[in-house]
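Forum > Structural Biology > Help requests

Title: Can anyone predict the 3D structure of Peptidase M16?

Hi all, first post here. I have the sequence for Peptidase M16 but no way to get a structure on my laptop. I'd be grateful if someone could post the structure tokens.
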Amino acid sequence: MLIGFFLSLLLGVVPFSGNFTNAVTPTATAPVSALSFSKGVQKTVLDNGLTVLTKEVHTAPVVSVQVWYKVGSRNEIKGENGISHQLEHLMFKGTNDRPVQFGRLFSALGSQFNAFTSYDETAYFGTVQRDKLEALLTLEADRMENSLIGTEQLTSEKRVVISELQGYQNFPSIRLGEAVMRSAFPNRAYGLPVGGTKADVEKFTVEQVRNYYQTYYSPENATLVITGDFATEPVLKVVKETFGKLSKRPKTATTRSTAPVATPTPGAKKAPIVLKQPGSAALLQAVYPLPDIKHPDVPAIDVMDAILTGGRSSRLYQALVESGLASSVSGGAAELIEPGWYDISATAAPGQELPKIAQVLQQSLAKLQQQPVTPEELNRAKTQLQASFVLGNQDITSQASQLGYNQTVAGDYRFIEQYLAAIAKVTPAQVQKVAKTYLNPAKQTLGFFEPTQPDGQPGTSGAGSGRTVENFSPGKPVDPAELAKYLPAATSATDSTKQSLPEQFTLANGLRVLLLPDHSVPTVNLSGQIDAGTQFDGNQKAGLANLTATNLINGTQTKNALTIAKTLEDRGASLDFSASREGVNVSGEGLSTNLPILIQTLADVAQNATFSEDQLELSRQRALTSLKVQLDDPNGLGRQVFQQAIYPENHPFHSFPTVESLKSITRDDLLRFYKEHYRPDTTTIALVGDFEPAKVKELLNQAFGKWQATGKPLVLKLPTVPLPQTLTRLNKVIPGKTEAVTYIGYNGISRKDPRFYAALVLNQILGGDTLSSRLGTEVRDRQGLTYGIYSAFAAGINPGPFLIQMQTAPGDAQKAIASTVALLKQLRQQGVTEAEFNTAKRSITNSYPVDLANPSDVSSIILSNAVLGLSRAEIREFPQRIQAVTMTQVKQAIEDLIQPENVVIVTAGPGDTTPKGS
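Reply #1:
Sure, ran it for you. Structure tokens for Peptidase M16 below:
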């Protein structure tokens, strides 16, 4: 239930922000407009005022159900900051008729579900196999009217919300953002954090939250969106039977202060807000007031944003990042029900001063105000915005979210089409006008975060070996048979036998290709892996694989970095490289007309990268900044210490970049690594999308045919990693943090281990889902000790760690650890029940078709299966392999893989959370 989720969701699918890294030729406006997004949408308003939007999309056997309430932090009065978000959490705690954690019900249905709170809206969404549609509707209707909001529920969920809010305070960017927004909008609810403040959350009463629920969670204040594989008339009949019987609720007036966008009186600029606190990198944030979403200037504002921050070719990237002043820059326009704002954020490069960055930023904005943008820039920006819309709506969940957002915030589900039509008509004069109007220095609120911590010092550490304090006895596991009586009826098994299999072939040079045509959307999704991962780094040159991967796109024998960027961004395509342990991940997407450009660019950089000294130096500085940020983040530092405690120094999984290793890497190192490890016979490419396989084969042969490898590729033989001899406890202190992050685990299994499928079923029961697993039920739901807890087997080509991760208040860390270890012991001693076992298998197999409904996810799954050495048919047979797991196999997996006496426990965060004497 991520309050920040709305950002990642909306940046991809609505005209909310322009920090687009994926950008289609200037002629691409035609296919986008022709998409006619709202075609086939039926709007129905029930007698009780509920707006229902239905859209049949028969591309996959799944449906998405979303309920959007027109209430968010905008509606909160003084002293109630965060009440919308608190209520969102409570909506999962059960109803009068179903007094059970709703996450467990959704999980049992195989739903991929979540919720988020934003400024103007709170939304709940789930995507399931089509036969579970009626069950989802029944559950959503139930919690619209009958949610349990009592003392017990509020007390435990307050602790969870405070843990969430404190977790955000670990990040300097969020602390700076909150300070800037408070200053920019001192008398408006938009100036307060969406999630709320600890002070207000602690004071919420049951009556207060219940009144808020009664006021805003009413049919006439909600939009129900259903997209996917269903027939409209029978579904509307079910909607009327479930939601139609809910009654309208009387509204109580809420007083709040709003402010229109006004021209400021001439005067001096506000002095920057300066936060001097423990942290890593120096940060800048600038905020400018904007009009509301219905204002006619909105399309031009978003085009302006794309010109400023839309990818590598954008003005601010060139002025700040390519100049070496900043490690990153981003921007976004928040266009909401009430007047919003434009936000520009930058992270300083090592040794660079924030006032200098602010000065160059202001010069760039002034230039935009003084001179019209070029036709090339204008076309690129329009293309990015329009392509982003298509690429962001490839799956039905995103389409439902788009409709819900349009209806709730813009007041019309057809808004996006009017918006895209207006984007196509934006002129250079309009861009210049909105830049002059809204990027006014007198309206600016500027903030600086200046870290006080010495560079790269992660703080002290305490180490010990011993027992966690056994002061806790876990409750009895929730019986799924008991849960079943609250589940609405839904019958049917997964049928994945219809899933098309990719065509697989190998080029003459050994490059492996998987092709899966999908003509449902005019897009292409490319996933690739080159066996040139960080396992080849070694400790002395840790960071080499990643620097090589990120520099691929920085120039070839015929194109410099900017030319490559424009080649892609002019067409709305993106191509990214990042090194992981076992390979370099390649991800690309674009409209289907641009597949040749994607393939040609990939082929060029894989064969002809030049690794210029200038670009290497810039990327090194960015890597050093990233390292500082990682060492200052309890998640990043905790994971590093955890892995280094599990894997010996001679194991590639022990290796992490250091300041020294990054500084020691030369251009010759990159050229050597590139020559040794970038080979066609260690490269795999998967393509899913709107193409003809015969044409793609021809294209691939032309692009990659001359790429040849000599000799045999290097294959590492990794040392065997035994379990720790005893329980090991490590603690890392990071100054200035508010929440601790804990990792618990040890080395696990590989993907091809015969126990893998049994381990997946076991993990689903233990910690596969924060709301429905044993760990989630006990540590999060019953005790309220953590915002999030999960377990996972990181199984790759080689065995990776089995780990449990959680976030807690420092004072709660020890109790949460003791609870977790006790749960592992309980699992080992008592095993799992037949009902848990069957529910876990159903949950995994029922949610799998949802993964297959997104072409982007399908390309990743196909690639992963191939790289891991699995059969082409794995994508089809996976559910059957889960169903075939026996209770005997799960018992054996517990015996082999759950070892509570031998765990490594690492906590990173504020203060010492290690128990005394351990």
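Residues 1-34, 253-267, 455-472 have pLDDT under 50 and may be disordered. The two ends are 35 Å apart (CA to CA).
Shout if anything looks off.
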